[in-house]
Amino acid sequence: MKKYLILLASAMLAWSCGDDKNVDEPQKPEPPVTEAAISLSATEYAFAAAGGTSDEITVTSSGAWELIGDDKVFEPSAKSGENGDKVTFTVGVNPQSEERTGTFQFLCDGEIAELTLTQSGGDELTIETREYAAPVKGGSIYVEVKASGAFEYTVEEGADWLTKPTAASAAAATPERAELVAAANDTGKARQATVTFTLGELSVPVVVTQAQNDVLKVAEGTDVTYNVGKPAETIAFAFEANFKPAVAASADWITVGEPVAASAEEGVVAYTLSIEVAANDGEPRNGTVTIAHPENNDVEALVITIEQDGEEPLPEGAVRIPDANFRTKLLALGYIESADSEICKVLDDGTTIPMMNVSNSNIADLTGIEAFTNITSLVADGNTGITRLDLSHNSKITNLTLRRLTNLTYVNLGAINIAGWFELTALTSNELTVISTGTIGTFECNGSNIRKVDFSQCTGFNTVILTGWQSLEGEMDLHNCTNINKLTLNLCPKLQKLILPASRKDVMTYSPGGDVNPDLNVEYK
What we know:
Blueprint: H1 2-18, E1 38-40, E2 44-47, E3 52-53, E4 57-61, E5 65-68, E6 75-76, E7 80-81, E8 86-87, E9 89-91, E10 100-108, E11 111-119, E12 125-126, E13 131-134, E14 139-144, E15 146-147, E16 152-155, E17 162-163, H2 170-173, E18 177-182, E19 191-199, E20 202-210, E21 216-218, E22 225-228, E23 233-241, E24 246-249, E25 254-256, E26 260-261, E27 269-277, E28 285-292, E29 302-308, E30 318-320, H3 324-333, E31 343-345, H4 348-352, E32 355-357, E33 377-379, E34 388-390, E35 399-401, E36 410-412, E37 418-427, E38 431-447, E39 452-467, E40 475-477, E41 486-490, E42 497-500, E43 509-512, E44 521-524
Parallel strand pairs: 2-11, 13-20, 22-29, 32-33, 33-35, 34-36, 36-38, 37-38, 38-39, 39-41, 40-42, 41-43, 42-44
Antiparallel strand pairs: 1-4, 3-9, 4-8, 5-7, 5-10, 6-9, 10-11, 12-15, 14-18, 16-19, 17-18, 19-20, 21-23, 23-27, 24-28, 25-27, 26-27, 28-29, 30-31
């Protein structure tokens, strides 16, 4: 027994001397050392050209992993995970005939497992240009196509103007281009059609447009040649167009209006053009009216021919005076030999007299006054029946009195120069045109019923007084009055625009009254 106690004491002493740790503290075991590793259940996968989703690929790793690689074509279901996770890849249809490949790397603590994905080539149908413009006059269009095989193409239903050539076929079209034939556009409207190119499951749309053609033609049943008598006449000419044309007459005795469209619809529209032929007191004459495209000279213009009856040449020293009251007055003045016929012989006094006063004589037409080229003074007050007055052949007139010509709509002063006052007042007509290339000291004019005026051919007005235009609308154009010094404008509540010469902007005096449209637009041109 004693022997065993000695041995126990020796063992305890040896333990206490060999380790200074607390014998009562438990000791943790050292963790086992694990090496980094990663592997895949498959290292490659092949897709068909039609695309789809791959089988599941299992990732075995020693820890968390991440996936790197170009995922624009092959799209992974996950880009990171843990040991045992599964990944699939999805790819669409291969639009090219060449095989395409993608490589992905799975990373775990510096270790790499690589996966290679391939997809076999499929049908290729590539059209770089998707929009084409067909010629307005018709013709062929060639669509450049890159394809891996024979493709087909069809024009959308209803687009009969665009067709494949009769000799065309899918085989003939391969491999570089396809032909389309456009008919000439005679509809007056722009149009377009979609052409669909197909190869297997691939489909590519191409849009073909065709601009509108410019249409200008005579309406069915309408003549282009008119034979008219000596009296004034109005012609209503019907035509069709898909643009607003420019219109011009070859003679001053032919007046054309603005073409009026039957509707504002797009495309070809019926138009009516009013052509006024003045009365002819001279020899037979002819003229033309031209209707043309304002910009495109390739569009054939419409030419209307007007032939007007006239009189045989007058005897020497004679003049035609249609108005019987004018003849009676001239006979009483001793200026003509007889008033029994329109053909009047002018007496010597008529060719030399400086003064002609035909006031209050119920005259409606002063035609024939052109024969009295030496008059310097004309007084024609109170002849309310006069609507048109042409004094362009009486350039020596310096004193002109035309008061109470209430129905006057047109007066041509030609090159007449009047240093003093010239007025056209108390007019009751609805419109007024004044032509003057001479110098007029003061021009005063008014008309409460007038809605439209044309002073654009007046060049020599110095002082202009315009008052009492309660009905005047639109614009008043004075931009050719390059000598204007003063303009007084009153009682113009509806006038919207006033055009004055730019050269007189800082020189002339412009005095608008308080009764002028406050929104009047004054433009210097």
